[in-house]
Each structure stands twice: as structure tokens, then as C-alpha cells.
UniProtKB/TrEMBL annotation:
Residues 42-76 form a coiled coil. It comes from Okeanomitos corallinicola TIOX110. The chain crosses the membrane at residues 7-26. Keywords: Coiled coil, Membrane, Transmembrane, Transmembrane helix. This is Molecular chaperone GrpE.
Length: 184
């Protein structure tokens, strides 16, 4: 995403620079022709081109710095929002490996920061776990190639979307995992 922004910004800057060059050349030509009846000197034009090249290089550097700053800001903001989860994850992992009979509901509250991040980004879930829905290939990824559009399926793993853009389709199946009831 940041790379696309950089490419667009670079293209806009180049168009502006070309416009400025043409505007300066045209303006100087008109001014010299009207006032002195003399054409622009090549030295004057070469200096203006050098100045524009320096300005272009400076703008590229600024863009590069802005890109790095955007990346750093994004990482810092995301880390802040996930800080609780990231600091608890090693403990959760160790507890799960050493105590496999530990009830999972004891760990659920540790994922609140992840829920908050999804909300802050404005993402919405595609369905709910074990919800029965009509299969929609634009929103769902079936676990079998023979599932037809409109067929009733269960959401096994939710997906996410940002507005109308599907970021990650929900994983669906005709059945629920063995031993699980969708009414619970």
C-alpha cells in the first residue's frame, strides 16, 4: 500500500516538474521575444534545467523520508494497539504447551487488543463462527469445489472486509467440526 502511494506521489511530482519546466521555458521565450526580441540563451535554459533537476532530487528525498515516516508511524501505532497481546503471547503459548487441559476461555480476554485493532481500522467481519449462510463465492472460500452458490454452508473461519473490499474471505463448509453444535 505504501509503495503504491509512493509511486502515485512520484508520478504526480514528475508531472508537476514537467509542467513547471514547460511553463518556465514558454514564459521566458515569450518574455524575451516581447521585450528584447532575443531568444533565450542556452546558458539560461541549462541553468533552469539544473535547478529543476536539483529540485526534483530534493523532492525525491523528501518523498523517501515521508515514506519511511509513514511506515514507522504505522508500525508504532499497530504495536501500541497490539502491545497487550504481544506481551502476553509468549506466556499464553507456554501455558498452552505445558497445560494442554487449560480451558481456552481463560485466554479469550487476552485477545481484546486484537478486537480493538480490527474495530479501529474499520474492518468488519464476514459472518460469525458456525453461522449458517448461503454460499457466496465473492465473500466465502469453500472447502470443497462442488459447493454451489446459494447452498447452505457453515462459516468455519470468519473473513474480513473493508467497506465493499473483501480482504480475506470467510472459510465455509457444509458441516461443522465433529463434536461442535452451532447452537452453542
Amino acid at each position: 500500500m505504501i509503495e503504491q502511494i509512493n509511486n502515485i506521489a512520484f508520478a504526480v511530482i514528475l508531472v508537476i516538474i514537467i509542467y513547471i519546466i514547460l511553463r518556465i521555458l514558454f514564459s521566458e521565450t515569450q518574455k524575451n521575444t516581447l521585450t528584447n526580441h532575443q531568444p533565450i540563451t542556452s546558458t539560461n535554459t541549462e541553468q533552469k534545467i539544473k535547478d529543476l533537476e536539483l529540485q526534483c532530487q530534493r523532492l525525491r528525498e523528501e518523498l523517501k523520508q515521508q515514506s519511511q515516516q509513514l511506515k514507522t508511524d504505522f508500525q508504532n501505532e499497530t504495536f501500541t494497539q497490539l502491545q497487550t497481546l504481544l506481551s502476553n503471547y509468549p506466556t499464553i503459548k507456554k501455558m498452552a504447551l505445558t497445560k494442554p487441559d487449560l480451558p481456552a476461555k481463560n485466554l479469550v480476554s487476552l485477545f481484546t487488543s486484537l478486537d480493538n485493532l480490527i474495530i479501529n481500522w474499520g474492518y468488519t467481519a464476514i459472518g460469525e463462527i458456525w453461522e449458517q449462510v448461503n454460499y457466496n463465492p465473492q465473500l466465502h472460500q469453500a472447502d470443497s469445489d462442488d459447493i454451489q452458490e446459494g447452498e447452505l454452508v457453515y462459516i468455519r473461519f470468519i473473513g474480513y472486509q473493508n467497506g465493499e473490499q473483501v480482504l480475506y474471505p470467510a472459510k465455509v463448509s457444509r458441516t461443522l467440526p465433529a463434536g461442535f453444535d452451532h447452537n452453542n
